[in-house]
Design goal:
heterodimer; A: about 160 residues; mainly alpha; elongated; B: Rna Polymerase Sigma Factor, Chain: A; Arc Repressor Mutant, subunit A; 2 domains; 9 helices; about 0% strand
Chain lengths: ~160, ~170
């Protein structure tokens, strides 16, 4: 049976496909790798306080005085004044109040008045009357008809 | 669990999973080491998982896949391999003898590589002797029934390809 050949071949091949033995010393190498990783991690954690100490030391170090650089002085226009100059506070005086122009005269003032008291009497109110305006008549000017005729254009003479 | 005991218990399975994916001992050892270091880093979770073996297998599988992404396997001509196997068959070798040869293993690896990812993953893990379908299902995060179906389909596809390659006449 040729088909049986392929079946048996496939079965055996698949059985052998991953049938490998662990190489000798695998466990020891694995333990060593683990130890290396662990040590590596330990060193990594030592870096953290070291970095922190270095940062603090750098922060606490007095700033080194560097030689002052030579600066070429150049005249510059005065900087603009951004704020108005301060001024002493001005004391404002209240404005003079104007006296009222009129007032009611007292009885004594009225008694001593040297003008006739008739003017204080209320005015007589008369009824309003329509004005009588004569109708406007416009008369034509003399010679107006003659002037109108002259304005009519004449036929051109050929 | 003690580190040494954990390694002793699972090293064969982890190594075989890595080898099934990477197909060379050097990469398989690196991937197995990486898997164990991951297991140890997450050892606290080991008590919570219901299937410890499946959990370790999953970590080994992922470590092997990570490793595989970094290295591309060298392509070998399938025709040359097929010719070698045909000559062995013609020489009267039994299927079991041919299955042990490196030509057959390389040809099988090439055929498995051409399978759809789901079938390939299920079949690859199922070839690891220490893993049952249940553990393969845990490692791949699916059901046992799905794994059975995928392995069956994968085997059928491989057989068809082998038949074509070796020129076997299939009986009607």
């Amino acid at each position: 049976m040729k088909e049986d050949f392929t079946d048996r071949l496939l079965d055996s091949a698949l059985r052998n496909y991953s049938s490998v033995d662990v190489p000798e010393g695998f466990a020891e190498r694995l333990a060593a790798a683990k130890q290396i990783r662990r040590d590596g991690r330990k060193w990594w954690w030592l870096l953290v306080p070291a970095a922190a100490a270095l940062t603090i030391a750098l922060m606490m170090r007095p700033a080194a005085e560097s030689p002052r650089p030579v600066v070429a002085v150049r005249r510059q226009p005065p900087s603009p004044i951004l704020q108005p100059p301060a001024q002493a506070q001005v004391r404002r005086v209240a404005a003079h109040r104007a006296k009222p122009r009129w007032r009611t005269l007292t009885a004594a003032e009225l008694a001593s008045a040297d003008f006739p008291l008739e003017i204080l009497r209320p005015l007589e109110v008369k009824p309003l009357k329509d004005l009588e305006v004569p109708a406007l008549e416009i008369k034509p000017l003399a010679g107006a008809d003659q002037a109108a005729e002259e304005t009519v254009p004449k036929e051109p003479q050929l | 669990m003690e580190w040494a005991a954990l390694v002793e218990q699972h090293q064969r399975m982890v190594y075989r999973i890595a080898f099934s994916v990477l197909r060379n001992h050097h990469d398989a050892e690196d991937a197995a080491q990486e898997a164990f270091l991951k297991v140890f880093r997450n050892a606290a979770k080991l008590d919570e998982v219901t299937d410890a073996k499946g959990w370790v297998a999953r970590i080994a599988w992922n470590a092997a896949l990570d490793r595989k992404r970094q290295s591309r396997p060298a392509e070998v001509s399938a025709e040359g391999l097929t010719r070698g196997i045909q000559s062995l068959r013609d020489g009267g070798r039994s299927p079991e003898e041919i299955a042990n040869t490196s030509e057959m293993q390389r040809l099988l690896a090439q055929i498995i590589r051409t399978l759809p990812a789901k079938l390939r993953d299920a079949l690859t893990l199922s070839t690891v002797e220490e893993l049952g379908y249940a553990e393969v299902a845990v490692a791949l995060g699916t059901s046992e029934a799905a794994i059975r179906a995928r392995v069956f389909q994968a085997r059928r596809q491989i057989k068809e390809k082998l038949d074509r390659m070796l020129g076997v006449e299939v009986e009607a």
